[in-house]
Amino acid sequence: MSEKVVIGLEVHCQLTSLKTKLFCSCPSNYRGREPNTLVCPTCLGLPGSLPVLNQKALEYGLMVALALNCKIPKRTMFFRKNYFYPDMAKNFQISMFDRAGGAPLGYDGYVTLAVGGTQKLVRIRRVHLEEDPGRLVYPGTIDTAPYTLVDYNRHGVALVEVVTEPDFESPKEARAFLQKLRSILEHLGVFDGGLEGAMRCDANISIAGGARVEVKNIGSFKDVERALTFEIMRQKQLLAKKVAVVRETRHWDGERRITVSLRTKEEEYDYRYFPEPDLVPVEITEEMLDQIKARLPELPDARQKRFVSQYGLPGYDAMVLTSDKALADFFEKAVAAYGKPKVVSNWLMSDVLRCLNEYNLEIWESKLTPEHLVEMLKLIDEGVISGKIAKNILWDMVSSGKSPKQIVEERGLTRIADEEYLRKLVDEVFKENPKAVEDALSDEKAIHFLVGQLMKKTRGRADPQLANKIIREKLASK
Ligand SMILES: [Zn+2]
Hints:
Helix content is 42%, strand content 19%. The protein is built from 16 helices and 15 strands. A hairpin with a 4-residue loop joins strand 12 and strand 13. Helix 3 packs antiparallel against helix 4 and helix 8 crosses helix 9. The radius of gyration is 29 Å and the shape is elongated. The N and C termini lie far apart (70 Å). Bound molecules: zinc ion. Zinc ion binds next to helix 1. The site of zinc ion has 8 residues, from helix 1.
C-alpha cells in the first residue's frame, strides 16, 4: 500500500537575536530566568497600556521574508486573534492576518530542498510576525496534569511564523525543510536554533485525500520526523481497519512519543480577527526594502555555490555542509588552517557526521573543534597515526574534547616506525613461527601471516610498509 502522504508545516521561530519583546521593552531572553519576572503592563495586557512595534523585529521579519523569496506587500497591519487560554494574559494575541484588509509580511515565496539527489521546490504560503504566548508547564502529561503552571516571561517575544503549502511527501522532507529554514535564519543572524523552544512547529497531515489532522507542539526538528512518522502510522492503521480518520487537532507528546487528541473540528476556535486599534498600519517602502536587501548576508544557497567554485567540492558535499551553518563554519575554519578542502569535507561528511549521529549530537553541541580536527589530520600526514587509528580516536575527540595528541599519548597509539625495534620483534615472530617462515619462502600468504603476527605484537601500531620491508629482507637473507 502506498497511499500518498501530504504534509504542510507551520513553523514558529523566535527572533532570538532581538534584545526586547515585540511590543514592549521587556528583555526577550527569558531562558533560565525566574518565572514571571520579565513582564510589564503591556505584555500582560493591563488596562491603559499600549503596544509599540519593535522596529528591529520588523526589519528582521522582512529579512526572513526576502530570504524565503517572498513577495512583500506595500502595507500591512496587525490584528487581534481572540482566544481564551491561560497562555495569553490579555485573551488575544497580536498577529497578522491575510484577509479583511490585512496582509502577511511576505507571501508566495519558496525554498529549494535537496531530496534524494534532486532539487525540490517548497512553496511558502506566508511569513508573518506575531507575539509568542506564555509558557504553560504541565506536571506530568498534558492530558493527565491536575493543574497547570504559567510563566509569562515568554509572552510577547517576537515570533516569525512561516507557513508552507502542503508540499512535503514524507517526514524526511519535512525535517530537511526545517533544517534548511534553520540554516537560512542562522545565516541571517536573527535566530539561534540551538536554544530550547526557539523553533516550534505544527504540521498538517493527510493521507490519500483523507481528513486533515493537525499535530501541534512539535518542539524541534529532531522531533518532527518522529511525530509525523507516528501520525502517518496511526492514520494508516485506521485506514487499514476501514475506520475514517477524523479531522482534529492532536498534541505531540515528546516524552511518550505519541500524538493525543486535543479537539475535533466541532470544537475549533473562531478567532474573531479584527484590526489592532492600538497600532498604526505598517508602510513598507521601496527604500526600506532596498536598504535591507543591501544588508542581506550570504545565504545557504549562495554559500553552497561558493563551496563548489572556491573549494572545488562536489555539489552534494557543498549542499550537506551548508545545510547547517555551524557545520559550514566548522568546515571553512578547518580548511583555512589546513587546506585540502576535499580531505576535510570527506572527514566531516563521513566519520564526523556518523559519530555525531551516533551520539545524537549536533556539531555545535559536540566537543570537537576545527583546531583538533586539523591536528588529527596533520598527525596522519606526518605518519604518527594511521587513518584507521584516527577514525578510532575521533570518537574520543567528539565526546571528551581532548586533543588528538593527548589521546594518542594517553593510549600509546603512535605508529611504530623505529626500524631497530621492529627488527627485534620480527626476530621473535620468526622464532615463534618456524613453519610459517618455511612456507613464506614460496608462499605469499605466509608472508601476510607473518606481518599479521607482527601487527598483533604491536597492537596494530607497526608501520605496515616498514614491517613488510623488514620481513621480506629477512626472508631474502635466508
Ligand atoms: Zn513587557
